[in-house]
Amino acid sequence: xxxxxxxxxxxxxxxxxxxxxxxxxxxxxxxxxxxxxxxxxxxxxxxxxxxxxxxxxxxxxxxxxxxxxxxxxxxxxxxxxxxxxxxxxxxxxxxxxxxxxxxxxxxxxxxxxxxxxxxxxxxxxxxxxxxxxxxxxxxxxxxxxxxxxxxxxxxxxxxxxxxxxxxxxxxxxxxxxxxxxxxxxxxxxxxxxxxxxxxxxxxxxxxxxxxxxxxxxxxxxxxxxxxxxxxxxxxxxxxxxxxxxxxxxxxxxxxxxxxxxxxxxxxxxxxxxxxxxxxxxxxxxxxxxxxxxxxxxxxxxxxxxxxxxxxxxxxxxxxxxx
Length: 322
Fold this sequence. Notes:
Blueprint (H helix, E strand, L loop, with lengths): L1 H24 L5 E5 L6 H17 L3 E5 L6 H8 L7 E6 L1 H8 L11 E11 L1 E5 L7 H10 L5 E4 L5 H13 L4 E4 L3 H9 L5 E4 L1 H10 L2 E6 L25 E9 L4 H15 L2 H9 L3 E2 L4 H21 L6
Parallel strand pairs: 1-2, 1-3, 6-7, 6-8
Antiparallel strand pairs: 3-10, 4-10, 4-11, 5-8, 5-9
Helix pairs in contact: 1-9, 2-9, 4-11, 6-11
């Protein structure tokens, strides 16, 4: 038994040394960072900011590739099936959990087919109306929707997007039904609000702030737990009368499942270093982000919890996509 114990200890020591050596050598060539949304959008910009700074720390180029389609699932599938060697990464937004909840034919498992590296930033959505809207508070908007189902219209940026699902979550939490109008993206939905075709919009910070500051939109509430520093006078949804409501979106990095733990740890450390670089942090914050890293197991729990949440919302509202 003593001889066996000694051999086991030697084996474990050698394995640890091999992992340390592999992590020290990684990477030896360029890394691909994929995402599933059009170039120039919020996800693409975050990917390029992180790729540029992480390449400085890792000593190898990081090439950003947009593989848009099916609310991010085309890119997620490609990464899930890539070699688990640390050379293919996914810049993943919180929409990943929504896609996993509503699409019935995904060729990957939304949680288990990925090695979760770290979150990068968190940000709330902003519930907006047009500047001349009759709704001056979220409570007034919800009261109108409660008095007459479908009387209050909401413009989503597409079926199954996180804005769409956040509106469904808000409706469930406040026991009202909105008339859903689906657009091809947030830009078209914003135009719909400006032209008066819809009553309200759940907007990303980058879009909302510019319209609020110009006076075209009026912000009724933010979806985060606490008030948002960019719009300190705007109440949270909970403060506006929906107890316990919170929906905070996020972005982060993942790799294929099976990526060695030492490489995941190296990438996690590099994310943490990158987001503390002043110009990187300020740019991420300029998009409304609360810049914050997580340990890999914490991020996995976050994704699993949100998948469970959106699966429940999808069941309750009979939302499915093929």
